[in-house]
Write a structure and sequence with these properties.
Structural class: mainly alpha
Strand content: under 5%
Number of helices: 10
Largest sheet: none
Mean pLDDT: 76
Low-confidence stretches: 71-81, 130-137
Shape: elongated
Radius of gyration: 26 Å
């Protein structure tokens, strides 16, 4: 089974192995059944042993720094500020169809939250202008929240309503 390429995975795998372990991995297809099982366990054991030694020698050095990634978490992304959307895109490749659907829902929720934040910023602009013009126009002008809500899909409207219910007024 072929795995999709991922820079973070490749960097991690490269970091926590040695050339001798790579040679053992190359030998795997040339070894018969029971010996292959034993060799597989040996390879994993050697990787664990090497990892523990490496971390003991360099305790202050994080895996993210060694792999050339930032340690900023989902909002910091993989050093490029891509954030959680990039995280979802990368892990999606390794998920089952059911997990992919859940990831898509989470990504949609995240997009809706960003849209909500933008709308709230616009609402603050609408309500923050103040003055006599607002007082005069308030009788004729439609509610900006309703205008914005009208631009959303039904499921986004539900999420929007949820956020409005939580918003302190």
């Amino acid at each position: 089974m072929e795995c999709p390429e991922n820079r973070a995975i490749a960097a991690f795998d490269t970091l926590y192995t040695t050339d001798h372990i790579r040679i053992l991995k190359i030998l795997l297809p040339f070894v018969d059944g029971s010996a292959r099982r034993d060799l597989t366990v040996l390879i994993k054991f050697l990787e664990l042993k090497y990892t523990m030694e490496l971390l003991r020698r360099t305790p202050a050095l994080s895996t993210a720094e060694i792999c050339g990634l930032t340690s900023g978490g989902p909002e910091g992304g993989a050093g490029n500020g891509a954030g959680i959307a990039e995280l979802f895109a990368q892990i999606r490749m390794f998920c089952t169809p059911t997990e992919r659907a859940a990831i898509e829902q989470l990504a949609g929720l995240q997009r809706s939250m960003k849209l909500y934040e933008k709308m709230m910023g616009m609402m603050q602009l609408f309500s923050g202008t103040g003055g006599e013009a607002d007082n005069a126009a308030s009788g004729d002008a439609p509610d900006p929240m309703e205008l914005l809500k009208g631009m959303l899909s039904p499921e986004q409207q539900t999420i929007f309503e949820m956020f409005l219910a939580e918003e302190p007024r």
